[in-house]
Amino acid sequence: MNMNSNFFPPLPEQVKIVEVGPRDGLQNESTPISAVDKIALIEKLDAAGIDYIESGSFVSPKWVPQMATSTEVFEKLNRKPGVTYAALTPNMRGFEGAMAVNATEVAIFGAASESFSQKNINCSIEESLERFAPIMDAAKSANIKVRGYVSCVLGCPYEGDIAPEQVATVAEKLYKMGCYEISLGDTIGIGTPDKVIKMIQAVSARVPMNKLAVHFHDTYGQALTNIYAALQMGIKVVDSAIAGLGGCPYAKGASGNVATEDVVYMLNGLGIKTGIDFQALLKAGWFISDKLGKPPISKVSSAYLANKS
């Protein structure tokens, strides 16, 4: 039973967790992590019951050195049946690299901010979307699903607030291009529930609610509150990163993604099913935190560690 009653808006019975730690999380960690340790992390995550894991990124190692081992990770990974091992592919070369190692599906990304798009990938929003056309064609021919990301949906480090309609425009274009799901990312973590609600209202008027996911960073400590607001709106897919890994190299002070442990703890408390073994999840977070030589950012994980000692 979840916490639905006359006093609360209805919440979903089940939520899908998209684990982005091995890619979006680790790519912004300065401590190098070997392919062997990345594989061990991914296998611990799928053993915990996570069935969607963003496992690598096929980008230039010059720009993202942490992802230089993605080919090795995908080649040597012991894959669990029923688990999606996804790769970020910003261009055709990346897509071909992902296909060469049998990534289950791929992801592309656009920004809701013109300034962020220029600073991040050196082109306009429209140009960035045009670059994805050949990927979409190739993926369709290969029967490969493509997930779309929209960054800076609640604010930009260069422009400040972003209009919900601008987010809706980019999300709709990605959806119409063929992305089966659009993940809405608060890249710098400045969102609050009211902004989340207005943004999702605007986007869901143009893209079906069941095709949307949310991706929050916890820079200002608002991620869980924002996720709760999104759940109340009808969102059923949440991106998160084990141990709160990551950040944004293009946004000063932007801390990591919301921790998977914290999200699952909240969902468990709401009676919402995830299919995830919480104790196994905690162990996966402790494993990668040890490899990085730092404590997990997850508050729930830190509390469990304190209670163990």
Please characterize this protein's 3D structure.
This protein is 42% helix and 14% strand. It is an alpha/beta fold and 309 residues long. It has one domain (16-308): TIM Barrel, CATH 3.20.20. It holds the Pfam family HMGL-like. Keywords: Lyase, Metal-binding.
Structural class by helix and strand composition: alpha/beta
How many domains make up the 3D coordinates? Answer: 1
Order of strands across the main sheet: 1-8-7-6-5-4-3-2
How many H/I helices?
13
Low-confidence stretches: none
Per the CATH scheme, the topology name is: TIM Barrel
CATH class: Alpha Beta
Q: Work out the number of β strands.
A: 8
Please give the share of residues in helix: 40-55%
Please state roughly what percent of the residues sit in beta strands, choosing from under 5%, 5-15%, 15-25%, 25-35%, 35-45% or over 45%: 5-15%
Q: Separation of termini?
A: 33 Å
Q: How would you name the CATH homologous superfamily?
A: Aldolase class I
- Tell me the major beta sheet: 8 strands, parallel
The H/E string reads EHHEHEHEHHHEHEHEHEHHH
CATH architecture type: Alpha-Beta Barrel
How confident is the prediction overall: mean pLDDT?
93
Shape: globular
Rg computed from alpha carbons, rounded to a whole number of angstroms: 18 Å
